[in-house]
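Re: that chain you flagged

S.,

Sorry for the slow reply, it's been a week of failed gels. I finally had a moment to sit down with the sequence you sent. For the record, here it is as I used it:
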Amino acid sequence: MVTWKKRNGCGYNQKVFIVKGGYHELRRTLVEKGWFENEDVFSQYYDLRWTTQTCDIDYGHIKTGQIVNHFNNNHHLTSKYGLARRLKTLIVSHGIDIDKFYPRSFDLGDQVDF
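Prediction finished late last night. Pasting the structure tokens below so you have them in one place:
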């Protein structure tokens, strides 16, 4: 990363970010705080990568210290369907009844729930 920073005119201690998508305020704020923008959205040289889609992140090549705004396989937690489906497995795996702490929900595509 040191060679990349030198070649691109980035300061040695300056943080590098990549923003893919709109996020104009985020980009402006990071620049105001002294961050350097790497405009190559496919580059592996960054401290922070911010994208609109999780598929824009190569999880297999994230280095220690790099930050991304998505978690791999986050659909299990970030959609009502994914979360409800995962919580329903608690009764089988741990004997926990989710109806005691999570609002009852149904998957109308599942014959049992329907």
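What I noticed first: The chain has five helices and four strands.

Talk soon,
D.
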